[in-house]
Amino acid sequence: MSVLILVQLITFMGIFFLARLVFLIYYWEFFDKYSFNELLWSFIHGVRFDLVVILKLSLVLLIPVLLSYGKIQRIFLRILPYYLWGCMFFFLLLHVSDLTYYRTIGRRLSFEFFTIGGDILPVAKLAFTSFFWESAGGVLVTVLFTWGWFRLWRAISQNRNSGLKPSLVNWGQRLVLLVVLAIGARGGLQSKPLSQSMAFQNEPLPLGHLTLSAPFTVMEQMTMDRIHKLAWLSEDDSLKIARNLVKNHKTNEIFLDKEHAFYRISQQEHTTGQKPLNVVVIMLESWTARYMASFGGPVASTPNFDSLCKKGQVFDQFYANGSRSIIGIASVLASIPGFTDAQVIMGAFTQNTMTSFPQILEQNGYQTLFLHGGFEGSLGIHDFARKLGYDKVIAKENFENPDNKWDGLWGIWDHFQFERFKQELDSLQEPFHGAIFTSSSHQPFHLPDPEFSVFDSSVPDYEWLNALHYSDWALGQFFEQAKSSSWFKNTVFVITADHTIWAHRGKAVENAHIPLLIYSPSEVIAPGINHTIGSQVDILPSMIDLLGLSTAHSSMGKSLFSETSESFALFNSVIYLWITPDYALSFVDNKLASIYNNHTKVLQEKINFTKLPSDIQSEIRTYLGYTQTAHNTLITNSIAPW
User: Fold this and answer.
1) What is the pLDDT of residue 349?
2) Residue 69, Cβ density class (10 Å: 0-12 exposed, 13-18 middle, ≥19 buried)
3) How confident is the model at residue 122 (pLDDT cuts 50, 70, 90)?
4) What is d(CA 256, CA 11) in angstroms, rounded to the nearest whole number?
5) Interaxial angle between packed helices 214-222 and 36-66, expressed in degrees from 0 to 180 and rounded to the nearest 10
6) Given Cys at both, which of 5, 206, 281, 558 links 246, Cβ 3.0 to 4.6 Å?
7) What pLDDT digit, counting tens, does each position of 494-506 carry?
């Protein structure tokens, strides 16, 4: 039995190895762009992804084979070769399809395999016309594999030891083998199972694609909802609506082509001799507006932030784009909102070409840094930061004596993170961009010292407020220390959150409401309160506007300083919430579910959906157009030219 398993693994790995080799030869241009060592590392790294695919599907029958004996086991052994052949047939189909798909879309095949539907005949026709030799070669390889597989299996089965009697030693061996196979199926002992984002570790995007393979990306998609292009409105109407929303007329933005809905260039006159401003983005875990005095909260839980608010511009109608950290981070750093069936971090769309803070600012001479206190594999954030192109990415493992600075669950305590962040910023040459994502203000609300327990049980949500108070103290320490740095006065600080804490039924708008403060010690941006509706995807285009950059970008938001743009926010938490100055409309896909008055925040329970006012009908159409365009742009990898 062990011989059968070993032969199966070796055979499958051999097929996957040949498929990788064919892919590399087919895309010979990789050799012109990258060194032999870079290609070799991507190739070897990809073997790990292949092994995960092979083991996951093999274990479906290997588990009952290993946990049974006698007649029952022999039944499973008879089924096993046919099941494994079916798996490999599926793999070969994916490898052959992906061989030409990559050239068309610029990423590995994934969810598209499940959305082909009624187009299978036209696609098959295309395969055997435009890509005849590739398709014919795939058929030939499949036939040869089928012939060789069953001959090999028959020969091994006839000569294997038929003694399948159970014993303690035998069962012990089987359990050990199962444990080893299970570890291999998750990709190793790292904190999170192997995911697509881990293929993009501090390397150019194409090398990440070379590391991946269609069997891995498609199999990962199997556990997700099927993703389809939205067709709520005509493509032309949807495109027009989305572009009208995000265009910055003040900077005379021009859209560059129809294929990339949001790809545009901002044309501004930069003052000659003006020193470029540094940009520091601070993303605070779970900070929620309704708990903060600056936004009408009941207690002074964030005194340091409140003090900074008097010196900078506060956006009191600012919202998260989703209810998860991975959505918030992608929205802030790459201006891409999250969708229920399509996300950038820890999803199929990590591969997509996109514009981001580090990419845009590096083109303008900036050094870039990203720091978070979690494990390198935590939520895919570390790999996503590398994929975006940050020069330096720091995680828990990069701290000195990290176990002594760890909160025991999520990551390095916030004050240690900010201390290291300040040190790293001091080491950078100006201009620079630094981003930090904190972790301590998260359930179960551990504190590094009892002295931060300033609220007792008589105060509602006191444990959360104590954690928030501690995180605010760490933020205050950072600014107190940063004042002495030479770069401080020439820096713009963007302080926001990844998402809110807890969901409050009947208070949909509050569930999305997070802080945003843009603070410049030199008062490049005037202090005060800004009532513009905005969300995390607006931060990147706002900084492009504020810095006076003439640059191409594909932000799915608009500048908060563009007075002519319609203000809006899209929040995704299973349902979608479309927030405008007057209303907040909740949707299940394209169906209106409820309406909130955005001035009173009260749910309008009695609604005649057949006789909606014209202004609400207009907002519904705007939501449909923007969401359709953004969603389809994401799933077709047409955010930016690749």
Assistant:
1) 83
2) middle
3) low
4) 49
5) 50
6) 558
7) 999 999 987 665 5
Distances (CA, A) of 621 to 238, 336, 617: 9, 21, 6
The half-sphere exposure of 508 on its side-chain side, counting CA atoms within 13 A, is: 26
Check whether 116 has a pLDDT greater than 80.
Answer: no
427 class by beta-carbon count within 10 Å (0-12 exposed, 13-18 middle, 19+ buried): exposed
Residues 6+ apart with CB under 8 A from 393: 202, 369, 370, 371, 382, 385, 386
374-to-186, 402, 598 alpha-carbon distances in Å: 20, 10, 36
pLDDT tens track for 471-498? 999 999 999 999 999 999 999 999 999 9
Q: Which helix (H) or strand (E) holds 529?
A: strand 528-530
Structure tokens belonging to residue 200: 């993009």
Among candidates 242, 285, 305, 290, which has minimal Cα distance to 509? 290
- State both tokens at 83: 């099941």
Torsions phi, psi of 586, nearest 5? -100, 145
pTM, to two decimals: 0.78
Q: Read off the pLDDT of residues 316-368 as tens digits, 9 standing for 90 and up.
A: 999 999 988 889 999 999 999 988 778 888 777 888 899 999 999 999 999 99
Measure the CA–CA gap between 22 and 211, rounded to whole angstroms.
13
Both tokens of residue 88?
A: 């490999």
Q: What is the pLDDT of residue 86?
A: 86
- CA–CA separation, 414 vs 472, rounded Å? 9
Nearest CA-CA partner of 344 in 396, 376, 377, 383: 383
What is the length of the chain?
642
pLDDT (0 to 100) of residue 589:
84
pLDDT of residue 162 exceeding 50: no
Tokens matching residue 97: 């399809």
Cis peptide before 444 (omega within 30 of 0): yes
Contact 530, 547 (CB under 8 A): no
Query: What is the longest distance spanned by two Cα atoms in the chain?
Result: 84
CA angle 262, 268, 273 (to 5 degrees): 140
Backbone angles phi, psi at 624, to 5 degrees: -60, -45
Does the pLDDT of residue 33 top 90, yes or no? Answer: no
Q: Is 298 left (phi over 0), alpha (psi -120 to 50) or beta?
A: alpha
Most confident of 15-19, 209-213, 414-418: 414-418
Alpha helices in 106-167 (DSSP H): 120-127, 132-159
Confidence (pLDDT) at 250: 82
> Six-digit token pair at 79?
């089924």
377 token code pair: 């594999």
Give bridge partners of residue 603 from the DSSP assignment.
596
Residue with tokens 């192109």: 389
In degrees, rounded to 5, the angle at the alpha carbon of residue 288 between the alpha carbons of residues 470 and 285 is 55
User: Over 374-422, what HEC string results?
Assistant: CCCCHHHHHHHHHHHCCCEEECHHHCCCHHHCECCCCCECHHHHHHHHH
